Amino acid sequence: MAAVNRVFAAQLAGLPVFGPDGESIGKVRDLVAGLRLDQQPPRILGIVVELTTRRRVFVPMLRVTSIEPSAVTLATGSVNMRRFHQRPNEVLVVGQLFDAYATLAGSDTRITVVDAAMEPTRTRDWVLAKLAIRERSSRLGLGRRRSAMQVLPWSEVSGLGLTDLTGQTQGAAQLLMLFDTMRPADVAATVRDLPLKRRHEVADAMDDEHLADVIEELPEDDQKELLSYLAEERAADILEAMDPDDAADLLAELAPAEQNRFLELMEPEESAPVKRLLEYSSDTAGGLMTPEPVVLTPDATIAEALAHIRNADLPVALASMVFVCRPPTETPTGRFVGVVHFQRLLREPPAEMVAAAIDSQLPALRPKATLSEVTRYFAAYNLTCGPVVDAEDHLLGAVTVDDVLDHLLPEDWRETGLHDITGEITEEAERA
Questions:
Q1: Computed from CA positions of residues 29, 33, 35, 39, in that sequence, does the dihedral angle turn out positive or negative?
Q2: Which residues does 432 contact at the CB level (< 8 Å), separation at least 6?
Q3: Contact by Cβ (8 Å): 63, 75
Q4: What beta strand segments (E) does 345-394 contain?
Q5: What does the alpha-carbon distance between residue 254 and residue 260 come to, in Å, rounded to a whole number?
Q6: Which of 344, 347, 348 shows the shortest CA–CA distance to 320?
């Protein structure tokens, strides 16, 4: 391995991982350390790498040939491709050690761990030698000053042994700072790998919008577990913050009494579109659609249409098409007129009305169209988004290709990925 004296976990998390021939493998998501009963620094056993398929695997430190500020490189050899599972004597440095509460050795001074650094030894092992900490202040009030960060040897901190981390309640500030640089799907994969107690602490610390984005990316069982953990009122707030189609999919998995309870707690304007979606089977166009596409009247300008699809919060697939309807423009709308593809918007003068760019020949889906019919529709017309219209020509919503794929893939695709990475990485090595 290239000579490196100290590597902080927060700097390592998120770095790309490459194979010996420069092929992209994935990203570093965590460090795995073996905790000890004494106060000696824990040995770093390896790294958790998230592959391009979102599966997380364990890579022993002996397979790491270099750690640079911009990337980690692996050696030629074999690595177990089975999904990473944490062992009882192991701790995830980012997932569990960050924000852990402890004390300074030989005193009652309370501290919080904000980062951890590994260093190499003469035997080629890596140990968790240093901790970045802040003193926890008991003083309250808006005027209190945040304590300075210190970097101390592991031996100068007490309360981080094998039996200490399992029962304590932690904050999640440092972990949330890392999550700010990650996509919701990547955050969801990280949350899934956390111990249940830590997962709940992270959920408690997240704001509703962020947690809603993460829950949308979790498998159904994990979605239901988190929803059941949250207080009813907050769970209802999370459902309101989710996309209506995702909220409907989640509620459809609950018992009728529980489903009705959440719908009652939601604000009427938020629950109304979810209730409409619940009327349809999940494997139909009505069950797959989102009721919040971009809808404009025929007299809107091209410039207005472009402004709507530039919205950074709008999913990419929904931004590919503008739907033109007579008032009202809230779904279910007035009479559906047609669609305008975003490429056509780019070719038209900004002052022109969208009515002049309408594709009125594109057929619309009916809400009861089956999943196979929706799939053939997308393939036939090369679309990433399509309108769902009722018998009276009211636009009910839009189906996007990501929702179609979500229902076509195996139920556990978020957990196992689509396929295994092959090549230099095989299934033979175990943790060193």
A1: negative
A2: 45, 46, 60, 61, 62
A3: yes
A4: 385-389
A5: 9
A6: 344
The residues, ordered by sequence, that sit 6+ positions from 146 with a Cβ below 8 Å of its Cβ are 134
What's the CA gap between 324 and 297, in Å, rounded?
A: 5
What tens digit of pLDDT does each residue of 92-115 get? 999 889 988 889 988 888 899 999
Q: Which fold has domain 207-279?
A: MgtE N-terminal fold (1.25.60)
Nearest of 271, 245, 242 to residue 259 by alpha carbon: 271
What's the confidence (pLDDT) of residue 309?
Answer: 95
CA distance 210 to 46: 30
Residue 79 is encoded by which pair of tokens?
Answer: 């690595």
pLDDT digits (tens, 9 = 90+) for 49-93: 998 877 889 999 988 999 999 999 998 776 677 888 888 788 899
CB atoms within 10 A of CB 205: 17
Q: What residue ranges do the domains of the chain occupy?
A: 1-183, 207-279, 295-407
Find out if CATH 3.20.20.370 is the number for domain 1-183: no
Six token digits for residue 148: 């300075």
Q: Select the CATH number that applies to the domain covering 295-407 from these four: 3.40.30.10, 3.10.580.10, 3.20.20.140, 3.40.50.2300.
A: 3.10.580.10
| Strands 395-400 vs 385-389: parallel, antiparallel or unpaired | antiparallel
Per-residue pLDDT, 424: 36
Complete DSSP assignment for 371-408: HHHHHHHHHHHT-SEEEEE-TTSBEEEEEEHHHHHHHH
How far apart CA 53 and CA 74 sit, in angstroms, is: 18
Measure the CA–CA gap between 413 and 406, rounded to whole angstroms.
9
Residue with more model confidence, 36 or 358: 358
Q: Is the pLDDT of residue 141 over 60?
A: no
For residues 310 and 294, what is the distance between their CA atoms, to the nearest angstrom?
11
Average pLDDT in the chain: 87
Residue spans of beta strands (DSSP E) within 105-227: 110-120, 126-135, 149-153, 157-158
What type of residue is 185? A
**Structural tokens at position 138:** 């008991």
Match 């398929």 to its residue by tokens. 53
Total-model pTM: 0.69
CA torsion through residues 262, 264, 265, 267, sign:
positive
Non-local CB neighbours of 107 within 8 Å, separated by 6+ positions: none
Identity (one letter) of the amino acid at 259? Q
d(CA 416, CA 59): 17
